[in-house]
Design brief:
This protein has about 140 residues and is α+β, with helices and mostly antiparallel strands. The chain has 3 helices and 8 strands, in the order E-E-E-E-E-E-E-E-H-H-H. One of its GO terms (biological process) is adaptive immune response.
């Protein structure tokens, strides 16, 4: 795997004997697997400085010409943009929550909440109409 334009150089070199050499810049960010004549290369944690034109090349024995196909890799930093937008979203949610709490508090202050939670006393008049109570009463 070669870089050709921005920072030309070898990223990964694998021999037919499975001996590999990885560029120090991609030391812990590169994985590869080999299945017969096919090699799968995976680059992890790409950064803006990794943007370049990458070529997978095979060197044919006793030939100065490389058989190759390339891919343009363009990495954009998107972490900062996400952080800014997420902070804006969080602050908007906090403002909405505070306004909602203020609205609820104002509403509760204007309404007499106690009268809704007090037990209502029934308007009942009780009169004892039993025989014993009438006998002891003097009627004139």
């Amino acid at each position: 795997l070669l870089r050709t334009h921005v920072q030309p150089g070898r990223v990964l070199s694998v021999s037919h004997l499975n001996e590999s050499e990885v560029s120090p810049a991609f030391g812990n960010r590169l994985e590869y697997s080999r299945e017969g004549n096919r090699i799968v290369i995976t680059l992890h944690s790409l950064q803006e400085k990794d943007s370049d034109y990458y070529i997978c090349a095979e060197q044919v024995m006793r030939s100065p010409v490389l058989s190759a196909s390339g891919t343009m890799v363009l990495v954009k930093e998107v972490e900062q943009a996400c952080e800014k937008s997420s902070w804006g979203l969080y602050s908007l949610l906090i403002v909405v929550a505070l306004l909602f709490c203020a609205l609820v508090c104002c509403t509760l202050c204007r309404v007499d909440v106690k009268k809704y939670f007090q037990k209502k006393k029934p308007n009942v008049v009780y009169e004892d109409m039993s025989y014993n109570s009438r006998r002891s009463t003097l009627v004139r």
